[in-house]
Amino acid sequence: MRILIIANDLVGLYSFRRELITALAVDHEVTCAVPEDGSSGWLKKINCKFIDYPLSKRGVNPLEDAKLILNYAKIIKGLKPDVVLTYTIKPNIYGGMVSRFFKIPYISNITGLGSAVENAGWLQKVTLTMYKAALKKASCVFFQNESNKEMFVKRGIINSRYETLPGSGVNLEHYEPLKYPESSSLHFLFVGRLIKEKGIDQYFDAAEFLKKKYPFVNFHMVGHLIEGFPPRLKELQIKNVIQYHGEQKDMRKFYMLSHCTVHPTYYPEGMSNVLLESAASARPAITTDRAGCREIVEEGVNGFLIKGKDSNDLINKIEKFIQMDYEGKRQMGLKGRKKVEKEFNREKVTASYMRELNSISAESGSSEKTLPAIKKSVSKG
């Protein structure tokens, strides 16, 4: 089969889809259409072709979106794939529309609703209308949480096959359970894009308040700067309240250092990969009580849940964690690891894709050979 994968980000493709892509590339011609960021070399190493194209992830410029549709049409018409896999909002909508136009089977993955769908208004109505058109002929629509699926079903957005996956899953070999730190100081870790919707203001508030009360507590941040360097972060760095480590490719050394992950997001998550990786590393977490987070963190079991946009609640839950004894903290982390082993193994995601692709292959008669069986997870490195 000729398989085309359309996504908006190479980092996400590598971090969350590489096991599937690697398995597919063994016996099939796989092409990934993703904006270049200088890291596409890994695709060539697994015998996967690469197509670069421009994309504004957060923009709503009609002219730019029209150009994007034409780009997808050019790519699909030239490649003539047997099936198209799409991830994230614009590839799902515009890639789905173009695939439908050319009558090519396609599978869409709703990795999260995004602010355009989460917030009521004209943009939500337009986006949902486009989603309905794009998903009408989808071979299968994968959702990453039940809340997103229920919204699409209730509003009549989908009438094709659909299934809820355990998010993107987590590679349990790459993220091994780490020894819990025995240091006298306590380390909290924020991981994510540094945008307001990820709860950075609430994290700043908590760090500033609690550092004064508990000098032995340290607050760290790792993540990509989307909207420039936040002035308040610079101020808190100077005061030695927060240590910012920039964007990192390998998070394991930071999970090794930390005692707890703090994820106060109110962004419309599909399923939080930060929380999955943190739990797989045997680290407790404090996060928002919302879809995409509450499925991973159980109140009082492997972490704590907070109200969205509520700095006081975040402060109270972090303080509650600080006051726990060492063994209680460690056991929280171990329970998180057990939960992801049981519910969020990435091999389950790979298996669902293989099943759908085999079904498409059988229906089209495009290949006598079934897709490869699930491979073991990629190496720990």
UniProtKB/TrEMBL annotation:
<feature type="domain" description="Glycosyltransferase subfamily 4-like N-terminal">
    <location>
        <begin position="19"/>
        <end position="145"/>
    </location>
</feature>
<feature type="domain" description="Glycosyl transferase family 1">
    <location>
        <begin position="187"/>
        <end position="338"/>
    </location>
</feature>
<protein>
    <submittedName>
        <fullName>Glycosyltransferase family 4 protein</fullName>
    </submittedName>
</protein>
<dbReference type="GO" id="GO:0016757">
    <property type="term" value="F:glycosyltransferase activity"/>
</dbReference>
<dbReference type="InterPro" id="IPR028098">
    <property type="entry name" value="Glyco_trans_4-like_N"/>
</dbReference>
<dbReference type="Pfam" id="PF13477">
    <property type="entry name" value="Glyco_trans_4_2"/>
</dbReference>
<dbReference type="InterPro" id="IPR001296">
    <property type="entry name" value="Glyco_trans_1"/>
</dbReference>
<dbReference type="Pfam" id="PF00534">
    <property type="entry name" value="Glycos_transf_1"/>
</dbReference>
<feature type="region of interest" description="Disordered">
    <location>
        <begin position="361"/>
        <end position="381"/>
    </location>
</feature>
